[in-house]
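Researcher: Good morning. I'm working through a list of sequences from a screen, and I'd like to move beyond sequence-only analysis. For each chain I'm collecting a predicted structure so we can compare shapes side by side. This is the next one on the list. No need for commentary yet; just the structure.
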Amino acid sequence: MQPYQEESFSENFKRARAKGVKIVAAVDGGAGGAGFVPHGQLYKELELFVEQGMSEFQAIQTATKNAAELIGRENDLGSIETGKIGDFVVLNDNPLDDISNLENINCVIKEGLIVYNQG
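Model: Good morning. Structure tokens for this chain:
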């Protein structure tokens, strides 16, 4: 038998969404239990959200827009807009086509500098 958290995750996730609860990705606690999504593997949490009925776009917003709103930083984080901090990830393939494409990172730009480059 699966642990309680895994057994109940799907139902609770769908209930929360139906009630309008804003979902925020946060792998520090593990979605549905620490064993459900390993620490530091955000893309796996977003894959899980899509499996549970979110669109790829909605899942990405849990880690960007929704997260910025949760911490009160939506005026300078969470979306690509003039005047906002422009840290971002460049992917090799479109995650809106398949959320698993988040795993294939081309480069990461932070504070205007490339801090990771696949090549």
